[in-house]
Amino acid sequence: MRRPVDDASTRVARELAERGVLVRAGAECGPSGEGHVRISFAASEDDLRTGPARIVRYVEDQLEYLK
How do residues 20-58 score in pLDDT, each as one tens digit? Predict the structure, then answer.
């Protein structure tokens, strides 16, 4: 079964990658994963500080865009 490449979680994963944060689209795990992203904690301590901060900035930017 092939999943669409334009689902929301794939878009978010792509946009986060553009900001230097690699996550997996929740839709890769099936329909119930849509609307989520998967995060791995197998990273350096520095990356575990930087990555979440970039995700927060991304979410803040998205919220600002919706205003």
Answer: 999 999 988 888 888 899 999 999 999 999 999 999 999
**Helix-helix angle 45-66:8-18, to 10 degrees:** 120
Residues 9, 36 contacting (CB under 8 angstroms): yes
| Cβ atoms of 27 and 3 closer than 8 Å | yes
Task: Enumerate residues 6+ apart whose C-beta is below 8 A from 16.
Answer: 22, 23, 37, 54, 55, 58
Residues in the chain: 67
Is-above-0.85 flag for pTM? no
Rounded CA-CA distance 27/25 in Å is: 5
